[in-house]
Amino acid sequence: MERLxxxxxxxxxxxxxxxxxxxxxxxxxxxxxLEFCRRRKLAVPNDLSPQVVSEFLREQTRxxxxxxxxxxxxxxxxxxxxxxxxxxxxxxxxxxxxRGPKPPFRLPKFLTERQVERLLRMxxxxxxxxxxxxxxxxxxxxxGLRASExxxxxxxxxxxxxxxxxxxxxxxxxxxxxxxPSALNSLHDWVEKYRSVLQLxxxxxxxxxxxxxxxxxxxxxxxxxxxxxxxEAGLAEDAVSPxxxxxxxxxxLLSRGxxxxxxxxxxxxxxxxxxxxxxxxxxxxxxxLHSRYHPxx
Length: 297
Known about the structure:
Blueprint: H1 2-15, H2 20-39, H3 50-62, H4 67-86, H5 113-120, H6 128-142, H7 147-151, E1 158-159, E2 164-168, E3 174-178, H8 181-199, H9 219-232, H10 242-255, H11 260-267, H12 272-275, H13 283-293
Antiparallel strand pairs: 1-2, 2-3
């Protein structure tokens, strides 16, 4: 079973092009399911059925897991079932006809422009760590990058001449994102003035952002950086994260008149329906449009 487990993870990465974060999440989810099967003395895959999957999902709900988590575990099992058929281990999809929970509709969190400006002023840009953190915050808000995308950036991904950055998003899809003057200047200060100071501590590396020990920053490091400055800015820490700054990037663009398709391209969304959620956020702008164009006051 362990060999099949590892083959599935390799299938996710190599055949489906899943990101490391997705692979890690599915690894944990499948471990939970296999433990569920072990407790019930079920053989995998011979004893698996839609009834088993339904009972597993009900148990997860009873244990208090969120709808989003249970939905993701259902998606993991659907993918695992397809893999077993693909690998010739099974001749049937044991998740067929099972309906998982539908995640509740939630509007994305975002900050006001004034709150974002306060956050961006927090790092001490005259120190190596502060200059690095300022550049990271500028990329989160000024380019809408994900934390994982920033962690994977290399020096050669920045095109200084054209002012764009190349990043690898979900499914290892590459997109080009333009940088505004603030983000570009902050990035230039970090690279030209301070990055070499940290690089000397760990030899040669082409990672764009380095830790104090000279290693590549991880996704979790970027979360800590954002939480730290949110606290210093007097913002509620649970209301600020790297992804919230990405939400701010999209919301503020749309509120200033950017078209939905362009924002979709900048965010790297495969479907415009994913981007469309941001149109629900700016209620003030919607009210202005209504009062301006509707014939009845």
